[in-house]
Amino acid sequence: MIRPFELFIGLRYTRARKRDHFISFISLISILGITLGIAALITVLSVMNGFGKELRLRILGVISHVTITEVDGRLRHWQAVASKLKEDPRVVGRAPYVLGQGMVARGKGVSGVMVRGVLPEEERQVSELADKMVAGELEALKPGAFGIVVGSALAWKLDLSVGSQVSLVIPQGQVTPIGVLPRLKRFTVVGVFKADMYEYDSGLVLTHIDDAARLYQMADAVTGLRLKLADLEAAPRVAQELADRLGQEYTARDWTREHGNFFRALKIEKTVMFVILLLIVTVAMFNVVSTLVVVVTEKEADIAILRTLGASPASIQGIFLVQGAVVGILGTAVGTALGVLLALNVETIVQGLEQLLRISFVAGDVYFISELPSDLHWDDVALVSGCSLLLGLLSTLYPAWRAAKVQPAEALRYE
Q: Left, alpha or beta for 73 (phi > 0: left; psi -120 to 50: alpha)?
């Protein structure tokens, strides 16, 4: 237990005298190392939290929380399935869809896409694409009109605008006298959306569900029923319960199964970054160890005098624990404050640097998003600060133990 005596002497030792300026300089370097390590760790974790949150929101703004279909990949009588789920309070939106692959061509430009047939009046229940239109509107998709809504990146790539004519080629072949040829249909662009995710802005097109069903020869069936849940985190459990409730001929997939590996990779990356950046703090703690060892060597005579005056080995150990703890606490406190400040303003700082240096740190076609988001979690701040304080305490144990082992007679022999 540290008493006022140990606290007073330990704090006194932290204030260097003229002949101890070198020790003070090493202590300052240790504090700066801890500060920078903590600040970098909090900032990076916040950015990774923001990155994961932003991606999840944007992905779930386009895909569904849960997808219901039959085991053969087609859903017949989707209206009956939707009516069964209408009374479930966990399901807040339902919409049928037809999904297929294709190629959009205009002139010499060709791009592979995923084609999603939707009911415009129902699509608003399960996605945010209707609110992300930058030209035209989703309701312009009419059955039999063969209209198409494209992403902003695809529109830029093929120079498309509302009213443009494009050809949609699908892999399902048709038999002709000259052999099997891919099916092709002319579509008119009736809208352009911008989901702020390059993957969807460049590779997803929407058309009316009736036109998609005719194109992919689905007859009266659809690919499945998309559901939006009140609690997206409960999607795995709800999907399993709905599948059991509907029967063995139905299957249910939730968003964690479709993109689970991606979000697990983000979580693993966050853990790895935490460990790597924590090594910066650990290196700074080695400086604390070396500083305290030097201090113990310099103060052997003082330690011997304190021992002869009645100080116990535990008191001597407490003195140097206080001195090391001051360095660790000070570095952790300043680093935590700096890290929180950076995490809360990282978007503004990055934008300022991009304008100043005229470069882009986050390319949308590489990182899926074009901005650097930040989401500060106070549990991460507590974890980082706690690890730093623990490392600071551990770094003081050996020097304090060494100080407690100083023998007064040996230390004063040559004084």
A: left
Question: How many other β-carbons are positioned within 10 Å of the β-carbon of residue 268?
Answer: 10
CA pair distance 15, 10, nearest whole angstrom: 9
Measured CA distances, 101 to 112, 210, 303, 356 (Å): 8, 16, 79, 43
The domain segmentation of the chain, as residue ranges, is 4-58+262-412, 72-248
Q: Which pair of tokens denotes residue 250?
A: 């139905």
The predicted-structure confidence for 123-148, as pLDDT tens digits, reads as follows 888 888 888 888 888 888 898 888 99
Least Cα distance to 303 among 294, 314, 311, 292 occurs for: 311
Could you tell me if 160 and 192 are in contact, meaning their C-beta atoms sit under 8 angstroms apart?
yes
User: For the whole prediction, is pTM greater than 0.70?
Assistant: no
pLDDT digits (tens, 9 = 90+) for 269-325: 888 888 888 887 888 778 777 777 777 776 667 767 777 777 777 777 777 777 777
Rounded (10°) CA dihedral 287, 44, 270, 279? -10
Q: Residue 113: name the closest of 209, 199, 186 by CA.
A: 199
